Amino acid sequence: MISLVAFVRPVHAVTISVSNVPSSLDQSQEVDADVFLSCDGCSDSYLRGVFYPSGTNYFGFTQNNQGQWIGTSNDKTQYFKVGENDLFEGSWSGKLKVKPDPADSAYSGPGNYVFKVGRYTGGGSATWSNEVSLAISGPTATQAPTKTPTPAPQATNTLTPTIIHSPTKKSTPTKTPTPKISLTPTIEVSPSGIVLGTETAATPSGGIKPVLPLIIALLLVAIGLAIIAIVLVWKKRKLQ
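Below the sequence we write its predicted structure tokens.
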């Protein structure tokens, strides 16, 4: 005969309650909540306070035994520890320091929220306290203005003026007319009936003086005047 013996593992009744929570607080304000834990025969417990608008989108910080602020963590043993030896007749009561986490994505700004405290085992299973309604105040998150893209400036064809150099007119030197000496023969009737056009002068000795020296003198005068005129023209050109 074979007898089967069933071993039934005792189930510990766990209750947790929270009180002394303000009805309103600032988003950066710390709260000392009163927690009562009844867990006769329980092993180590880890307490966490949470804020949430609805559902299970929890946020908030809980200060652990080392004074560290712990937010949402997969390692539940990082929260405030109530050891098995801390229980007195199966219960524990004390303060749990908590505060909101405005940087958490579950926080949607000032408004109405719910607060409660959870008791975790080392394996991660949770038991929750009663819920407390409260209002969280603080600055309203403003959306950063959307930058309007500025169109890139388009290059435009700019006409560059072309400088056309006009040919410089050269001044033409004014020619100074060369004075011409006109020799006009003068015919005078002398008492002796001699024509002066051919001009033969009577010498004291009664002979005829030739006119060649007079012509040569006149030519020299003309040549001198011509040279003077040429010099004047040359100087004028040089000055220009």
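The first strand starts at residue 14 and ends at 19.
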